[in-house]
Each structure stands twice: as structure tokens, then as C-alpha cells.
Amino acid sequence: MSQPINAEELTVGKKAAIRLTVNGKSYELEIEPSRRLVDVLRCDLDLTGTKISCGVGRCGACMVLLDGKPFNSCLTMAYQCEGMRIETIEGIENKEITNAFLEEGALQCGYCTPGMVISLQGELEKNSHPTEEELKECLTGNICRCTGYGGIQRVLKRLEEERRKQ
Amino acid sequence: MLLNSHTTTHPWKVRPDGLEKVTGQLKYLTDMKTEGCLYGKIKRSGLPHARLIEVDTSKAEALPGVHAVLTSKDIPGLNGFGIADPNQPVFCEDLIRFEGDAVAAIAAESPETAEEAASLIRIKTEPLPVISSPEEALQKNAPRLHKEGNTLHTTSYKRGETEHVLKECSIVVEDSYDTPRQMHVFMETEGGLFVPEKDGSLTVFAPTQHGYKDRMQLARILGWSEAQIRIVSSPIGGSFGGKDELNVQPYGALLAVMTGRAVKIHYSREESVRAGIKRHPMKIHMKTGADKNGRILAHEVSIISDTGAYATLGGPVLNFATEHAIGGYDIPHVEVNGKAVYTNNGISGEFRGFGGNQVIFALEGQMDRIAEKLNVDPWSIRRKNLRQVHDYGPLGQRIVPNDGPRQVWKAIQQSPLWKKPSRERDREEPWIVKGRGAALAMHGSGLGYGIPDPSGGRLQLSESGKIEAAFGFEECGQGLISSMEIMLTEAFKCSTEDTKITIGDTALVPSSGSTTASRATNMVWKALQNMKQPFKEKLYRAASALTGESKENMQTGRGGIWKKGQKEETFVCSYKDLAGGEIVSETEFHFPVTPDAVTGGHYLYGSTAVVVEVEVNRLTGSVRVTGADHAVSAGKVINPIGYLGQIEGGSIMALGFTLSEDAIMKNGSYETPNMDTYLVPTIRDVPDTQRVDAVEELAEGDNYGPRGVGEIGSVALAPAIIQAVHAATGVRISSLPLQAEELVDERELLALMSEETREEQTG
Ligand code: FES
Ligand code: FES
User: Fold this and answer.
1) Model confidence at B8: pLDDT above 80
2) For the domain bounded by A92-165, which CATH number is listed?
3) Which ranges carry the Aldehyde oxidase/xanthine dehydrogenase a/b hammerhead domain (chain B) (predicted)?
4) Considering A46, B161, B532, B650, which has the largest number of Cβ atoms within 10 A of its Cβ?
5) Given this model, what pLDDT does residue B751 score?
6) Residues of B in contact with A123 (CB under 8 A)
7) pLDDT value for A1
8) Looking at ligand 1, which atom is closest to the CA of residue A55?
């Protein structure tokens, strides 16, 4: 692992070499320290499954997992992720969540969906038998404008029930 | 029929575009870029009202990495756009009318460079007094925002003698209602990719609800023929009316054409808020009179809408509001006057519900006030005044026989919420009071009389042997692709593998009109009705030529053509066998309109009734909607998952409209520029479940097909919530979004506490 970057050594306009591990693949990038993770993912790495909507940490469309925990990639600077394990929606394979979303009608335009899936994935990774309430809690930072959360609540019910049976 | 995966008899079908969306594989148009594309940025005035003297772009042009800086001088064609009236300039020439007005656009090698270049553009201006409300705009000495003055549109409708009759009424209720400037908050902000092609044409990848209309408008701006432009317009990360009007397209197109390079633009949320359209804030005054039995005799309405700096659909929205201010009630004496007024505020335009939401809030509020005054049940007042199946429409126009309002009036009473007490105090936390309220609405679909509303579609056997349906509609998230697939497999009894759906690309689809006004599903259904038989005939003829079978004995089915009428059906030939021949059917028609020349009057309507339960905290004034159930009459349900989703989604959007959403403007400037200050509902703010009961029966002889439900879920919730709040607290709210302060009442708690202390002391 390379040395973590010290923020004080970074100057605006000067590019720095950053090594990111995204979905198990490692990338060496020359980027300005002022770049947000969301832009590096979407623009430099063309991983556009991570969405951007508010840019201020309010909507959750840009959610990614950093070392397994959900973070808003619009509030995260790329250099801060040096040495961390980044997972984006493209790296998540979770039929349990995917099928629930599809079968419960939990998406319409789908623009919020990757962020929702990431938040749930993060919760399920740390909590194998979550209650519906806990699942709801983990989605409070994800805004969906289309569904009115009807389908999404059906997903939460289902995930809780399925996990309880296990 | 209650809609959920267990009770529905219709296919609960996973949407075909779902998997790609859940896994993040789907490329939205704002996700696209090409190798070496440039980045576009728009320089906006930042001023609500000023004379524009000069735009100095020299510094921006000199910045390394900048490829073009365009201003009004660089527009080859028309410097204007707008669906109804192209009076919004692409770039301002001499007058700035709102803070989002564009003065220049830049194409540069990186978004950062484009941004920097924008900051280097200097504009010389002379500030003018800001008109921040319609009232100010209507004053005699107010500066004129457009050459025709400050009034965009007026409506007036009159039947009978309201003034005289109101005097004779046993009771009259009168109130003024205010509604907020709601934002669409589609999650995908505006943007797209603009690609100049080798043959000199231009391909536009940018979300819109009406690709053909964009093409027409862009051709006008570029001074090109429409055929030189191809618009790819789906999938869309949400629109709700907000992307029907051009947004980034003029800038992207001009920059791409001028630089000869592909240009990508994607708005930040702040830019989207400042530049984009909103729901019209309206001030509605209503005076309604009834006899002592609750029969409404007269209804006087005046509406003023703040349409902002430019026209867009301010006129049609006002027409819609005028019609829906009367609603599904039979009232003998009516007068409605409306005015849409220009101001220096952000632009108002089309938004789900199209002006219905605002006036239905007021109209239903009147119903509840009348009931209160007469001390009778508000639902019975409605019943007494509801239209009968053969009554005329709100504006006295003939409409398709419609019993929707009475159907939903009845159906909603099946909701478990209905049986709950109208007011209840929490035992443990006595400062929390629950209340129940209900409201109903009849809502027009299609654009209404006087606006061209053509539609059409095409069926063809594709080269790979699939039955391909091509329509000029867009997938905004509503599930159109799903609904089309269901209708297609039903029409041909084939499997989904036999079908292909093509939408959202002017190079591949015929013009079908706009994906708006809850019309797409209805129009696809109608087109299939027209094309199904002729298309089958063509298939049978080809199959007969191929196999020698007589075509009278054929039917379409899974995988191909089958023989019919025998015990054991036998396969004649596959669709693939028939591919390669010219098997095509096309249709063109107009959305059904009333035969009476009543501008804006609708012919087809859906209806809805909603019952809501709220919890009001009397200490903080906060309101939680704990239940909201809907009954909807819109004809046959095609796609239950989509239908349910539209109602649930529309409903929660209306919940925001009622409780928290307001794009506040001060002196022509947005004070709520992002989602940290403009609050849309989260999963914590919504009821756990919403029941949706679809009433599918249409009036006898109605064969106009299934009506769309894109809007109807959002139109009647506000008055139901407000009535529930009234039931809980006794407070009548007439201004949205509701302000918590109005509901705080510490006296109640003090009374309770002292009761308790008394009990403690005595006990
Ligand atoms: S884009 Fe990051 S939270 Fe909205
Ligand atoms: S599905 Fe469109 S925002 Fe959630």
C-alpha cells in the first residue's frame, strides 16, 4: 500500500498521483486534489452507475461503499480514499436486493436506485438480521422522487422477512 | 380492485428496463460522453431584472482550453424557445428578466475550464426595479416585462348569475388560498450530449418529454431543416413535466455546431434550480354559496398565477386551473376569472397535475367549509353536488359519459382508514392528536380543446422477426415500456420475446405527440386498436404465401402464426420466417376532443378520492401523514405495478407540496437553491403503505380505453391532508405548504398537565 496522502501537502491546481481500488481493480490516477470522488468515478473511470443529483450530501444518489461502509461520494474527495476499498454499484452483485427491487416495483426512473442499493448493501453487511426499522433508518439519506417509497417499503419488509427466516 | 402483488388478477410484471437500472448498467443520456468531447457551461445573468448593455467575452475567449464563447450575436436562427410561445431568449439581447437568464455559453476542454471561463465573462448592466409578485406586476406604473405587457394570459368563464344568486344563498363561504412554487426535483438534473455527425447533421442525446417538438425548436434556433437533427430522448431520470420545455438543448446544439466537436453539459442542482421551471404559485379566491340543504348554487373564483419571466405553458396551465376550479361538481351558477402574470421570478411551467392541484386544493377546501358551516358530514355535501354520469363537463362542454366522481366517492369508503374516528388523542402522548380527512377530484387527460394534440404509432415486423412497436413517446420512469409490452403481447397473444419496443429516438419512431397530460398509455392503446387487425392481415397474407395455408384459419400467438379453430392447434410458421418482407402498419389520429368549442375543455377524465390520516404534534406543530389511501377511476388497469407506482409517487409528491416544499424567492432570487433547504419527503415522512383501489368500470359504451394515471395521484391529497389537520386541531389552513407555527397550541398541553397535577394531588 502506498503512503496515505497528507492533505496539507496538496496544492490546488497541482496534480497528484493517487491510487484507488475500485471494485477490486486498482487504478493509478494523476488528479487534482480538489476533485470529488463522484467526479473521478463518473468522468475518469466511466463508472456512471454512481449518480449525482444534489452534490451536497442530501440525496444519496452518489452513495458508494468505502471499506464496506456507505458514503456520499459527492462529499468525499478522491485523495481521501487512497488505500481504501471502494465499491460502486457496478461491483455489487446482490440478487437478494436486486430481485426485491424488481419484483416489488421499487424503481421508476431508476436514478436513485443504485444509491439505495448501496445503502442497503452497507446495512446488510454489518447487520445480518436487520429490522424493517433499521433498514428504513439506513435509507433516510436516499431520496426517491418517483416512487413515493411505496415499492421501497415493500422491499424493506421483504428483506426483513427473508433474513428472519434464515 | 385493490392493487398489490397478491390481489391483482392482472400481470404483476417486472419492468423490462429494471435490471439495467438496479445494477447501474444503464446509461442515462447525462451519463454519456465521447472521446475528446468538450464541456459546455452557461453564463447566467444572476440578476432578476436589468438592462443588458454589453457582454464582454474577451477574457473568457483568451483562456487556454476554451473553444467557443457564444452570445446572442451567434445565433443563426431564432433567438427564442418555448412550447406555446417561443418568448424565452436563448441568450438575452438587451433585457434580463430573471436570474437564470442566459447571456453566454462556453465550450471548453474540461468542466473546470468552462466554469472558469464563465467567471471571466463580464456583463455590463443597468439594474431595473424587481417585480417580485403578480400584484406588483399588475400595478399601473410597473415596468413592462414583455412588449404585450405583464399579463401573459387571462381566462374568464361564466354561466348563470353568481352575484345575484350568492345573495340568495342560505350560506356562503369565502376564502383565499395560496399554493407554493413547487420544484420537480427530478433526480437526474438536466443535461446531455450533442454530437455533430460527419454528414453535417446533429445528434442530440438529451432527456425530453417530446423529442419531435425539441427537434422543431432546435431547427428553428439553428436555422436548419428538422431532418438534419436527430433527437434521442430516453431514458430519463425523472421529469414530471420539468423537462418538457427545452433546457440545455439550445446551448449544447449551438456549441456543438459552432465548434464541430461533441459537447457535454450536465447541470449542477443549483443551476437546475435557478434555470428550470417550477409549479405555478397561485392565489385563488373562492366564494361559494349553497342552500340550507347543502346544494351548491353559485361559485365564484378568481385565480392569479405567478408565471415568472417567460410564457412556456403558463397559458394552458391557467386554462386547466380554470376548468378544474369547478371540478366534478354540478353547479348552476359559476364564474371563474384567471390571470397568468409575468414577474421577475423563476419561470413557472408544466408540472404533474398541470394547475389542477392548486385549484382542487381550494375547491375541496370550500366543500369542507360548507359542510362545517351547515354542520353536516363533508362527504355527504360532496355527494349531493357531484356530477351525474351524463352531465356536461366543468365548462359546460359535452364530455364522454363519466361517472368517475361518484364511483370514487363510494369506493374510498372501503378503506380501513375510513372507519377510523375522525379525531383521536394519543393516550400516552396527549399532545399528539390524530385526524382524518378526505377529498376528491376529477382530472382531465390530453391537452384539451383548442390545442393540437395529434398522435400515432407504427407496427412492423423487424428484420429479426419481432413485432416491433415504434412510438414517439419517452420513458420518464413511469413504466411506459412495460405497459407497451403488456399491451402488445395481449394484442397478439405472443410472448415478450416476440416483441420489440422502440421509443425515444426521432430517427426510429413516428411522431406520437408529447409524453404528457397522462396521455401516452391511452394513445398507445388506441394506436394498437387501429393497427392490430391490419397488421395481422398482413402477417396472415405473408404466412399464406409462404406455407399455402388459408389465412382465414390463422391466429397470432407465441413464436409465430398458429392455425385456429381446431382442437389441437398447429404451428403455421414463425415470425422469423416472415421477416424480411415489408410488414408494416401505421396510424395517425387526434386525441379525442369535445365537439363544443370550449378552449381548454377536456373530453376524457379520470377521477380520484383520497382519505388521509394525520398525526399533529400540538407542541411542535409538526404533521405526519400516517395513512393515505386512494380510489382511482381511470378505466382498465394495464400495468398494475406501474399504476400503483404512479399513484404512490404522485401522492408523496403532493405530500411534499402540502407539508414542506416551497422554492422561496426573495427579490427575484431563489433562497432554496438545493435539497438541503428545499425539503422533499424522505422515507421517514411517508405512510408505511398506501392502498390503491382501481375502479375499472367505465360508463356504458365508453371505448376510449385506459386513461393514464401519471397525474391523478397528485391532485387531491393536499385538501385531504388539510382537512385531516382540521379534524385534529380545528385549525383551517388556506396556505401551502403548511406552517408548523399555525398548529402549535401549548394551552392544550397546559390544560392536560394541570389536570394531571390535580389528579396527582388529589390522588
Ligand atoms: S449527489 Fe451526493 S448526496 Fe446527492
Ligand atoms: S425511481 Fe426515480 S428517483 Fe427513485
Assistant:
1) no
2) 1.10.150.120
3) 23-129
4) B650
5) 76
6) none
7) 40
8) 1
Contacts of A152 in chain B (CB under 8 A): 683
Q: Do A58 and B676 touch (CB under 8 A)?
A: yes
Residue (of B244, B238, B455, B210) closest to B354 by Cα position: B244
Ligand 1 geometric centre to CA of A141 (Å): 9
CA of B231 to the centre of ligand 2 (A): 23
Q: Establish whether domains A7-90 and A92-165 are of one fold.
A: no
Predicted confidence (pLDDT) at residue B478 exceeds the cutoff of 50? yes
Closest C-alpha residue for ligand 2 atom 4: A144
Q: Is the CB of A142 under 6 A from ligand 2?
A: no
Assess contact for B727 and B377: CB atoms under 8 A: no
Instruction: Identify the band that residue B581 occupies on the pLDDT scale cut at 50, 70 and 90.
Output: confident
What pLDDT shows up at residue B394? 97
For the A7-90 domain, the top CATH level (class) is alpha beta
CB B159 within 8 A of CB B334: yes
pLDDT tens per residue across span B268-307: 999 999 999 999 999 999 999 999 999 999 999 999 999 9
A39, three cell numbers: 467526479
What chain B holds in terms of domains, given with CATH numbers, is 32-128+188-275 (3.90.1170.50), 130-181+278-387 (3.30.365.10), 398-444+598-762 (3.30.365.10), 454-590 (3.30.365.10)
- Of residues B551, B526, B405, B406, the one with CA closest to residue B469: B526
User: Which of A39, A111, A131, A136 is the mutation pick for testing B, counting most B CBs within 10 A?
Assistant: A111
Q: Touching check for A145 and chain B: CB below 8 Å?
A: yes
Residue A111, ligand 2, Cβ within 6 A? yes
